Amino acid sequence: MITDLVTRSDHPAAPDPTRSDLADHRHRPRRLRRSPALRRLARETRLHPAQLIAPLFVLPGRDREEPIASVPGHARLSPDRALRRATELAELGVGGVLLFGLPAAKDPEGRAAADPDGPVPETLRRLRDAGLPLVSVADVCLCEYTTHGHCGVVVGGEIANDPSLPRLVEAAVAYATAGADVVAPSAMLDGQVAAIRAGLDAAGHTGTAILAYASKHASALYAPFREAADSAPAFGDRRSYQLDPANGRAALRELALDAAEGADALMVKPALTSLDLLARARERFDLPLAAYHVSGEVAMLEAAAERGWLDRRAVGLEQLTAIVRAGADWIVTYLAADAARWLAEER
Ligand code: PBG
Ligand code: ZN
């Protein structure tokens, strides 16, 4: 054909500089992207509902449910409602729940954190009695229970480290006694994992695991959570105990210390601003690694989706997949229930 001749004379033997022989004949990465079946086979990261942990906020009483404006789709629940919610999560195949409590009353020492009649222990007992195929994790901190909203006790205007440890230990022991499979200290106080391990063992709870919030940055992305948990500090901020967001080596040191103190699993938080840490931690530690996809990360997605600027489902799954690709085994996420539904539909 004429066009063939023209083409040939236009391009004599000279090679096209934009297409080397190698590119033409050997390296064609697109071969494994040609069909949905090929893409599914070649997929490196698979998200599964069992690796997701749903946060639950519990308050005292019965049949109570207070929607949380800053975290759409979530509510503060009384223990009976929380059990109902956990049952739905278990049916969806979600791996676990992480409990935060809102006490009836607060004091400067956060003593209600260890109250065996508080909403967290009550919910834990209900979960244990129900025998759901779901891991119960109890957050261990004082900020929801102290009048000043800090994660430890305050002495002379400072968050005192060692005087806070017995309060955290008492709370952890109360949760283990109520049936928590895992306790998750989140105060970022030095030595909290060692103290809690020793306290649990001394109380006979040698089988209760510790998921350490090991690398927790002082992030502005926790704002919606603090509204949900009524835990905003009344003065100052958390920068004297949580990590400077600029620091990665310091974060790895915190992870190493918590592993040495006896943590059974390590958490990094927030998730999407710590993908570098997840990748480095994955290389360094053989313990399970968790990432907390925090309230502010979801708030940005919810707000954009509400405006029609982002596809909530597509972006949500993309974010969770990236967190696993970076190295997380488990993800604490407000999207747990939705993601489990989306994943079931994909299969
Ligand atoms: C408090 C705690 C916080 C979160 C989990 N535990 C907030 C904080 O440090 O003020 C944040 C979770 C989220 O933003 O979803 N110990
Ligand atoms: Zn706290």
Write the layout of secondary structure elements.
Blueprint: H1 2-10, H2 21-25, H3 36-42, E1 52-58, E2 65-67, E3 75-77, H4 79-91, E4 96-101, H5 119-130, E5 135-140, E6 154-155, E7 158-159, H6 165-177, E8 182-185, H7 192-202, E9 209-216, H8 223-229, H9 249-260, E10 265-269, H10 275-284, E11 289-293, H11 295-306, H12 312-326, E12 330-333, H13 336-346
Parallel strand pairs: 1-3, 1-4, 1-12, 4-5, 5-8, 8-9, 9-10, 10-11, 11-12
Antiparallel strand pairs: 2-3, 6-7
Bound molecules: ligand PBG and zinc ion.
Ligand PBG binds near residues 139, 225, 226, 231 and 294.
Brief summary of the model shown:
With 347 residues, the protein is of the alpha/beta class.
- Output the CATH class name of the domain at 47-268: Alpha Beta
How can the largest sheet be summarized?
8 strands, parallel, barrel
Low-pLDDT stretches: 1-9
Ends apart, CA distance between termini: 49 Å
Q: How much strand content do the residues show?
A: 15-25%
Ligands (ions, cofactors included): ligand PBG, zinc ion
Rg of Cα set: 24 Å
The tally of strands reads 12
CATH topology of the domain at 47-268: TIM Barrel
Give me the side-by-side strand order of the main sheet: 1-4-5-8-9-10-11-12
- Count of alpha/pi helices: 13
Give the oligomeric state of the chains in this entry, treating copies of one chain as homo and distinct chains as hetero. single chain
Class from secondary-structure proportions: alpha/beta
- Taken in chain order, the helices and strands follow as HHHEEEHEHEEEHEHEHHEHEHHEH
What is the overall shape? globular
Helix content: 25-40%
